[in-house]
């Protein structure tokens, strides 16, 4: 039994080290690769399966240690109430040692089982957090890309509006030019008519003077 509890203590120590690694403030890239390896590696999956079987044996040891602690505690209480245990120092020391070892084994196996549950829950919480952070980064990139596309679309719309304004101004200038051209043509026709009438009137006056 001593070897079993020694292995249980080593397992508890390894759980404490693993917990410190899981909650350590690692960079996001390192933590993502680490948890991706732990969650997808077949070797880690086989190792985790072996640990589940080991924790079953630890649970059996916890139940046995708990029963021993209750039995030794009951014997100590009975000895104190009857007063028989106080007469023999060796018996009292032996009973106290048995009580200490039973309590130690109970706490050792109990903490080992409890920390295994904490490690499992912590692992999946951090794994979900990493997936959420990855989805958030992806969504942020898509949003930034959409914003850039929207800005580019707005720039194109602004350029189109400016071109429309320039085209409208050019068309307005063209209309003004047509109007000026038409007015110039009308003025030219009026000038030609007046010149013809003037020449006709001047020619008639010259003929009368000769007569």
From TrEMBL:
It holds the Pfam family Bap31_Bap29_C. The chain crosses the membrane at residues 7-27, 47-66, 107-127. May play a role in anterograde transport of membrane proteins from the endoplasmic reticulum to the Golgi. Keywords: Coiled coil, Endoplasmic reticulum, ER-Golgi transport, Membrane, Protein transport, Receptor, Transmembrane, Transmembrane helix, Transport. It is a multi-pass membrane protein. GO terms for biological process: endoplasmic reticulum to Golgi vesicle-mediated transport; intracellular protein transport; protein localization to endoplasmic reticulum exit site. The keyword Cytoplasm does not apply. Residues 153-187 form a coiled coil. Residues 1-138 form the BAP29/BAP31 transmembrane domain. This is Endoplasmic reticulum transmembrane protein. Belongs to the BCAP29/BCAP31 family. It is found in: Endoplasmic reticulum membrane. It comes from the Eukaryota. Its main location: endoplasmic reticulum. Residues 159-210 form the Bap31/Bap29 cytoplasmic coiled-coil domain.
């Amino acid at each position: 039994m001593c070897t079993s509890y020694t292995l249980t203590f080593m397992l508890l120590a390894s759980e404490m080290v693993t917990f410190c690694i899981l909650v350590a403030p690692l960079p996001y890239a390192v933590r993502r690769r680490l948890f991706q390896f732990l969650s997808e590696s077949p070797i880690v999956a086989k190792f985790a399966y072996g640990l589940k079987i080991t924790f079953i044996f630890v649970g059996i040891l916890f139940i046995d240690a708990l029963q021993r602690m209750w039995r030794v505690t009951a014997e100590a209480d009975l000895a104190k109430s009857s007063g028989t245990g106080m007469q023999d120092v060796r018996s009292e020391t032996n009973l106290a040692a048995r009580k200490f070892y039973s309590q130690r084994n109970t706490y050792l196996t109990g903490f080992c089982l409890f920390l295994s549950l904490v490690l499992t829950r912590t692992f999946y919480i951090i794994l979900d957090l990493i997936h959420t952070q990855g989805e958030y980064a992806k969504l942020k990139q898509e949003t930034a890309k959409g914003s850039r596309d929207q800005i580019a679309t707005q720039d194109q719309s602004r350029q189109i509006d400016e071109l429309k304004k320039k085209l409208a101004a050019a068309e307005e200038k063209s209309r003004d030019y047509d109007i000026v051209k038409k007015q110039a043509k009308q003025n030219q026709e009026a000038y030609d008519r007046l010149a013809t009438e003037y020449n006709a009137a001047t020619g008639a006056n010259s003929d009368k003077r000769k007569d």
